[in-house]
């Protein structure tokens, strides 16, 4: 991970480990937290957002630890969880996650991931989502891991084939949607609006009223 000296990177990663160890005190020991952080850093290798890498590692590891703790019954699951998966986690799944978070009003825990994550989110997708009040500028493509699949109640796939592991007790849906990669903003808006309609339908099925 280029962009900062090894000493600075090591110090900031250690700070993330200590912070997460505090957050998950009584759930996981520091060794488990440290292992998850370093695994997450390796999975995010190649991110173009090099200046934010320690922050992204922290956020990614935190989500994975939370998911793992839910699966193991170490923390309570207070909301239904939905996972959106596409190939690059740079377009469709990011739009769906952002819209569900917005329309669900925080009553659904939303995650997204990619079977082959890109280095950054499609700029046209970021712009199209800004138009409807969803800020994706701080989001980043994340690799698909088994822990987040296991934690999900509903897994929505979007053109990633059989890359997503199948576990019993999960509801799997496949949404056939046009990939926004390389498309003009006008086309991305149409994809966004189709995703919004599907998200609204899923929220109704989950018994979660939309936020408008």
What does it look like?
By secondary structure, the chain is an alpha/beta fold. The chain folds into two domains: 1-76, Helicase, Ruva Protein, domain 3; 78-212, Rossmann fold (3-Layer(aba) Sandwich). It has seven helices and four strands; from the N terminus they run αααβαβααββα. It has a four-stranded parallel beta sheet. Strand 1 (81-86), helix 4 (92-104) and strand 2 (109-114) form a beta-alpha-beta unit. Helix 1 runs parallel beside helix 3 (53-71) and helix 4 (92-104) crosses helix 7 (185-205). The longest helix is centred in the last third of the chain and has 21 residues, at 185-205.
Describe how the helices and strands are arranged.
Elements: H1 6-23, H2 30-43, H3 53-71, E1 81-86, H4 92-104, E2 109-114, H5 123-130, H6 146-151, E3 154-158, E4 171-174, H7 185-205
Parallel strand pairs: 1-2, 1-3, 3-4
Helix pairs in contact: 1-2, 1-3, 2-3, 4-7, 5-7
Entry summary:
With 212 residues, the chain is of the alpha/beta class. 47% of the residues lie in helices and 10% in strands.
Protein traits:
4-stranded parallel sheet, 2 domains, 212 residues, Rossmann fold, alpha/beta, Helicase, Ruva Protein, domain 3
Q: What do we call the CATH topology of the largest domain?
A: Rossmann fold
Question: What gyration radius follows from the Cα positions, in whole Å?
Answer: 17 Å
Superfamily at the CATH H level of the largest domain?
A: Response regulator
Low-confidence residue ranges: none
Give the ordered list of helices and strands: HHHEHEHHEEH
Assembly state: single chain
Overall residue-averaged pLDDT value: 91
Beta-strand residue percentage: 5-15%
Count of runs of 4 or more consecutive helical residues: 7
């Amino acid at each position: 991970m280029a962009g900062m000296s090894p000493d600075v990177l090591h110090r900031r990663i250690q700070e993330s480990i200590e912070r997460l160890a505090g957050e998950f005190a009584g759930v996981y020991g520091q060794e488990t937290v440290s292992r998850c952080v370093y695994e997450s850093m390796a999975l995010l290798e190649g991110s173009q957002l090099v200046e934010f890498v320690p922050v992204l590692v922290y956020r990614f590891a935190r989500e994975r630890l939370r998911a793992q703790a839910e699966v193991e019954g170490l923390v309570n699951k207070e909301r239904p969880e939905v996972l959106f998966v596409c190939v690059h986690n740079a377009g469709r799944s990011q739009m769906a996650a952002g819209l569900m978070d917005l329309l669900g009003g925080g009553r659904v825990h939303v995650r997204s991931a990619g079977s082959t994550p890109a280095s950054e989110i499609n700029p046209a997708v970021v712009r199209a989502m800004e138009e409807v009040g969803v800020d994706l500028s701080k989001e980043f493509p994340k690799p698909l891991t088994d822990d987040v699949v296991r934690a999900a109640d509903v897994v929505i796939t979007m053109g990633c084939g059989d890359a997503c592991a199948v576990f019993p007790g999960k509801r799997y849906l496949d949404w056939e949607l046009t990939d926004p990669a390389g498309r003009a903003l006008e086309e991305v808006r149409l994809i966004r609006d189709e995703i919004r309609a599907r998200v609204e339908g899923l929220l109704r099925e989950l018994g979660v009223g939309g936020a408008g």
